[in-house]
Amino acid sequence: MGVILSLVGFILAGVEGIVWAAFLGILILVISPNISPAFIFSMYGGKLLSADNAPGLYQIIQELSARADLPAQPALYYLPSQLMNAFSVGSSANSAIGLSDELLNTLSTRETIAVLAHEISHIQHNDVRVMTYADIISRITHTLALTGFLMILINLPLFFLGMVTISWGALAVLIVAPNIMSFLQLSLSRMREFDADRQAVLLTGDPEGLAMALSKLEAYETSIFDIIFGRGHSKSIPSILRSHPGTEERIERLLSIKKPLKSDLKYSTHDRFAIPVHYQKSVRKPRWHLGGFWY
């Protein structure tokens, strides 16, 4: 991605273009605010779970954090959403994991533990920061390519008058560079997901638990509701256009992993982790807007 960015910068302004592209990227990284996990989850209506109202979840988080050698234990947030989802934010020193109501009410204790291990793996390897860097590089490339394309477009009348020349090879690079950058960014995301799956197994010693959780997530995503209201069937999307790998491939890789020597996590025999009833009263129903349904 850095090579493509440098190439676009060179097309626009030679060696100085490369320097300015690098300077712009570093500047954005320096001045970009370190948004706290609490602020991010407040945008989703998330509620902080404490060790008192979610002792089972916090016991697992404490054990997984110790196994992952995290400097600080992630905070847990309950998301009042009917979308089955879990995601992590922040760095290894200041992180949080959000679990939606639908996920907690659908997955078993074993499957939820596997999902938590997957998210802790993202935190352990600073995947949020890595993907942020990739996104910044991609955005700068898109901006520079658009600038160069507009400059060529403005000079088209002079080209037809024979007053300037246009490098069609450079124009081709400016057109395809943003698309290649997007493909690389999606590929990086898929690689990080595979790595997080593998690391989750090392943390829990339970590849089958994560495989079962992924199967339920896949079933949810391809439900009749999603098909009717236009969210589409994930299998109809080419893998190169996905931010996550195909579920079948993920499960196949998981089940091929040799079970680590580390003992499985101990958990209760309850079907699911308990969440305070007053938290569940704020669950949101899907709401429609111009882009589709929002949860």
Topology (elements, then pairings):
Elements: H1 2-31, H2 37-42, E1 47-49, H3 55-67, E2 75-79, E3 86-91, E4 94-100, H4 101-106, H5 109-124, H6 127-154, H7 156-160, H8 168-204, H9 207-221, H10 224-228, H11 247-256, H12 277-280, E5 287-289, E6 292-294
Parallel strand pairs: 2-4
Antiparallel strand pairs: 1-2, 3-4, 5-6
Helix pairs in contact: 1-6, 1-8, 3-5, 5-8, 5-9, 6-8, 9-11
Summed up:
With 295 residues, this protein is α+β, with helices and mostly antiparallel strands. 59% of the residues lie in helices and 9% in strands. The protein has one domain (2-294).
Question: In words, what does this structure look like?
Answer:
With 295 residues, this protein is of the alpha+beta class. It has one domain. It is 59% helix and 9% strand. It has twelve helices and six strands. It has helices spanning 2-31, 37-42, 55-67, 101-106, 109-124, 127-154, 156-160, 168-204, 207-221, 224-228, 247-256, 277-280; strands at 47-49, 75-79, 86-91, 94-100, 287-289, 292-294. Strands 1-2-4-3 form a four-stranded mixed β-sheet. A two-stranded antiparallel sheet has the order 5-6. A hairpin with a 2-residue loop joins β3 and β4 (94-100). α1 crosses α6 (127-154), α3 (55-67) packs across α5 (109-124) and α5 (109-124) crosses α9 (207-221). The longest helix has 37 residues, at 168-204. The protein is elongated, with a radius of gyration of 23 Å. The two termini are 33 Å apart. The relative contact order is 0.14. The mean pLDDT is 80.
